[in-house]
Protein: Response regulator
Organism: Limnoglobus roseus
Amino acid sequence: MPGLLLSDDLIFTSRIVATARAHGLTVVTAKTAEALLAKAKDDPPAGVILDLHNPTLDVAKLRAELPGVRIVAYGSHVDVERLKAARQAGCDLVLPRSAFVDKLETDIAGWLL
């Protein structure tokens, strides 16, 4: 299964998908958590990337629905509480958006495989 991405930000989604493609990876995108879970049930992914600012996201519910799946999340560096909550909800890696962008090129394969 390809990796999954939850994001409703078209420009950022395009950047992530293009980076994955450059590494020979496929990323299936979803704009809502419900759509992401439906795609994951069809073919469980090894990794999921979450935009913590997606309005449909409930990280704890998603973590419970995807046991054993690597979850990498990113969000605004000033939203410390949301980043902390994502860690507490069981995300494997939580990064401020700037760090996510810095690591995207080098780490995306590890996040999705």
